[in-house]
Amino acid sequence: MKLSAGTKAVKFFGRSPLIFGVSRDRLARRLRSHGVMIRREGPTTEQVLEMVRRYDQGESLARVGARLGFSGGTVRTHLIRAGVRLRDSHGRAR
């Protein structure tokens, strides 16, 4: 089966066994192999390193998230896990 519209496939992901006739895991692997990001999937190590680099260069959490396809809150969580010291809302070191 060819999946031409990844977003449509992700929309129906919860009902995948009924619609596509395959398990959720198999569908997820197939979508990922075609470059489709699955919701609630965290950033890769490379993406976290990119988050750190962009934040260190002065970009806001929201801007970093928008560029990489994550929310600012997700960026914040992963920067903290990576040991990055966050700025306050005015850009000053805390």
Structurally, the number of domains stands at 2
Strand segment tally? 0
Shape estimate: elongated
Main sheet overview:
none
Order of helices and strands: HHHHHH
Tally of separate helices: 6
Radius of gyration: 17 Å
The end-to-end span amounts to 52 Å
| Low-confidence sequence ranges | none
Task: Compose a concise summary of this entry.
The protein is mostly helical.
Q: Would you give an account of this structure?
A:
With 94 residues, the protein is mostly helical. Helix content is 53%, strand content 0%. The protein has helices at 6-11, 16-19, 24-33, 45-56, 61-68, 72-81. Helix 4 (45-56) runs antiparallel to helix 5 and helix 5 (61-68) crosses helix 6 (72-81).
